[in-house]
Amino acid sequence: MHLTTFTDYCLRVLMYVAVAPPGRRATVPEVAAAFGISRSHLSKVVHLLGKAGVLHNVRGRRGGLELARPAGEINVGAVVRLVDDRPALVECFDRTTNRCVITPVCRLRDALGSASDAFYATLDRYTIADITQHPRPLAQVLHFERRRAGGARG
Questions:
Q1: Could you read off the pLDDT of 80-134 as tens digits, one per residue?
Q2: Which of left, alpha, beta for 143 (phi over 0: left; psi -120 to 50: alpha)?
Q3: Which of 3.20.20.140, 3.40.109.10, 1.10.10.10, 3.90.79.10 would CATH assign to domain 5-87+127-150?
Q4: 104 phi/psi in degrees, rounded to 5
Q5: Residue 121: other Cβ atoms inside 10 A
Q6: Domain locations in the chain?
Q7: pLDDT in the model for residue 98
Q8: Span 135-147, mean pLDDT?
Q9: What is the rounded distance in angstroms from the CA atom of residue 97 to the CA atom of residue 88?
Q10: Contact between 16 and 34 (Cβ < 8 Å)
Q11: Phi, psi for 55 (deg, rounded to 5)
């Protein structure tokens, strides 16, 4: 299975915001810098996550990004399904556009369907809290530790 870049960025944003120090909101520019993602692309990610009720964007001087719900309530599989609206794995998954002549006798559809189900079943076992369970190393890589020690804002 392969996630789109957009889906990957959505998960990264949620992880970043989840490991931000308590009481500190992340900003689009600092998340963009941390991951080397363009601000405009990241703004689209943040907008979608906000519309979906996963991320909350606080406006104003002390504004920024925060999770709209506790990290333990944000399911990774649900986020991927929300964001990744790509077409079916193979043509025969979509009954309205399927033109494959071997569909009536083909077993590949069953195998790929099982693989897709297993992929999402695995993702469904994890929340954002699970994948950020040890936040300190992640925060260090994302430079939260340096910002806090140096007093600089992102």
A1: 999 986 656 777 777 888 888 988 898 888 898 898 889 999 999 999 999 999 8
A2: left
A3: 1.10.10.10
A4: -60, -25
A5: 10
A6: 5-87+127-150
A7: 85
A8: 71
A9: 11
A10: yes
A11: -125, 145
